[in-house]
Design brief:
It is built from 12 helices and 18 strands. The chain is an alpha/beta fold. The termini are far apart. This is Rhodanese domain-containing protein.
Length: 412
C-alpha cells in the first residue's frame, strides 16, 4: 500500500528544477545519440536529487524539533571586573508554553539546589522569569540547562550576566506562579503570540534620537514609579502609578488617537514589556515596539547614551550603572537637589514605608525617614536598617535577613 507524500516530499518536489525531470525524446535519433541523451538525463536527475537531499537535510537540521538546544546570547558589562569576581548574577526570561508548571518548577529547584544557586525562578503556563546568583560557571550551566529544556522556543535566549563579589540573593525561591501582574482591565484574554516588535539596542538608540529631532512617537516606562526616580530614558514620563498592576492605557496617557502612534516601551530586563505589549496590541495599538533585553542589555551593548541616573535592581546591589560607571547623566537627590542619588530607600517609618530616592547625607539628616512627620512616628525600623552608620538600606536588609519588619524600633 502506497503512503501519501509527506510535507518534506512536497517541499522537495516544489523546489525541484522541472527541467531535470524531462525525459528526452528519442523518436528518430540514432541509437548512439539516444544513449548519450539518456546518460545526460540521468546525470541531471542525479544532480537534482543530490541538491534536494542536501536542502532537505538542511531544512530538518534547522527545525526546532531537531535542535539540540536553544541558542544563548550572553550580554555582559563591557567594563566589569570579571577577572576578580568568581560570582555572577544571571537574569533572563522565556515566553513559551509550559504544560506542567508545578513539575517544571520542581526540576529547576532540584537543579539549582544541586549547584548552590540562589535567587528567584518563577514558572507559569506562559514561560519563565529568572534572576539567580552563584558561581559564574554554575550560572552559565543553568542557562544551558534551560536552553536544552526549551529547545523549541523562539530564540535566542538573551542572558544578562553581571559579575559580583558575592551572591546577590540570600536564598533560593522557585515557584509556579504568575510571571507578571497586569491591571485586570489589561490582563483579560491577552494573546502572548502578538506582543509587538523587538528593537535591538542600537535601533532603540536611533529611535530615541529621532524623537529628539521631532519624529512622532511616545516612550513608555513600564516599571514602578520609584524605579523611574532612580533612572530613566530620555523622553520617558514618570509613571503615574506606583506599580505595574495598577497601570492602564489611560494612566500611561494613551488615547484612541494614539493607536497609529509608535509606542516605545522599556523595562529592566524585558519581561514586563512582553506582557504590556501584548495587552496594548489587544487594545488596538498597532505600532508597539519593545527594547530587546531591557535596560540591562542596552547598557551592556550601547552604554549610557539617552539614559539618566542608575538602574534599580531587585537584589542586594540595589542599583547598578547603565554602561560604564560614571558615564550616565546623574540623577539628583529628590530632597536636597544638590547631591547625586544612587540608591533607593524605604522610609524607616513602618506605617509609611514610602519609596524614595535620596542621597545618604539627607537620609542621615532625616534619621532614615522621608519627612519630619515620620521622624515622630511611634514605630520605626532600627537605625542600622535605616541606613544609619554605614548600615544596610531597607531593600538590602530585606534580602539579607529575609524580612523587613522584625525588631522594630519603638520611639520613646
Amino acid at each position: 500500500m502506497l503512503r501519501p507524500p509527506g510535507p518534506l516530499t512536497w517541499h522537495l518536489a516544489r523546489t525541484a528544477t522541472p527541467a531535470a525531470w524531462e525525459v528526452p525524446s528519442v523518436g528518430s535519433a540514432s541509437r548512439a545519440s539516444s544513449r548519450t541523451a539518456v546518460g545526460q538525463h540521468v546525470s541531471r536527475v542525479s544532480a537534482a536529487l543530490r541538491s534536494l537531499l542536501a536542502s532537505g537535510l538542511a531544512l530538518l537540521l534547522r527545525s526546532p524539533l531537531r535542535r539540540r538546544k536553544l541558542e544563548i546570547q550572553y550580554s555582559r558589562p563591557s567594563c566589569a571586573p570579571s577577572a576578580s569576581y568568581a560570582y555572577s548574577v544571571l537574569a533572563f526570561y522565556l515566553v513559551h508554553p509550559v504544560k506542567a508548571p508545578q513539575e517544571e518548577a520542581l526540576q529547576h529547584k532540584a537543579w539549582c539546589r544541586s549547584r548552590g544557586l540562589l535567587g528567584r525562578v518563577w514558572v507559569s503556563s506562559r514561560g519563565l522569569n529568572v534572576q539567580i546568583s552563584g558561581k559564574t560557571e554554575d550560572c552559565e550551566r543553568y542557562a544551558d540547562f534551560v536552553a536544552r529544556r526549551f529547545r523549541t522556543c523562539r530564540g535566542p535566549l538573551v542572558c544578562k550576566i553581571d559579575p559580583v563579589p558575592e551572591p546577590a540573593f540570600p536564598r533560593l525561591r522557585v515557584k509556579a506562579k504568575q510571571l507578571v501582574s497586569l491591571h485586570p482591565e489589561l490582563a483579560e484574554q491577552v494573546d502572548m503570540t502578538d506582543r509587538g516588535e523587538d528593537l535591538e539596542p542600537e535601533e532603540w538608540r536611533r529611535k530615541l534620537q529621532g524623537l529628539s529631532m521631532g519624529e512622532p512617537g511616545k516612550v513608555l516606562d513600564v516599571r514602578n514609579d520609584y524605579e523611574w526616580d532612580l533612572g530613566h530614558f530620555a523622553h520617558a514620563e514618570r509613571p503615574s502609578t506606583e506599580q505595574l498592576r495598577a497601570m492602564t492605557a489611560e494612566s500611561m496617557g494613551l488615547q484612541s488617537e494614539d493607536q497609529e502612534t509608535p509606542l516605545y516601551m522599556y523595562c529592566t530586563g524585558g519581561i514586563r514589556c512582553e506582557f504590556m505589549g501584548a495587552a496594548l496590541r489587544q487594545r488596538g495599538f498597532k505600532k508597539v515596539y519593545k527594547l530587546k533585553g531591557g535596560i540591562q542589555h542596552y547598557g551592556n551593548t550601547v552604554g549610557a547614551e539617552e539614559w539618566k541616573g542608575r538602574l534599580f535592581v531587585f537584589d542586594r546591589r540595589n542599583s547598578i550603572s547603565v554602561g560604564p560607571e560614571g558615564r550616565a547623566e546623574p540623577q539628583w537627590c529628590s530632597t536636597c537637589g544638590s547631591r547625586v542619588a544612587e540608591e533607593f530607600w524605604n522610609c524607616g517609618n513602618m506605617d509609611c514605608n514610602r519609596c524614595m530616592v535620596t542621597c545618604r547625607e539627607c537620609l542621615r539628616s532625616l534619621d532614615g525617614v522621608c519627612c519630619k512627620g515620620c521622624m515622630r512616628a511611634a514605630r520605626r525600623l532600627p537605625a542600622t536598617w535605616r541606613g544609619m552608620n554605614g548600615g544596610l538600606n531597607n531593600m538590602q536588609a530585606h534580602f539579607a535577613y529575609g524580612m523587613i519588619y522584625s525588631q522594630p524600633y519603638i520611639a520613646k
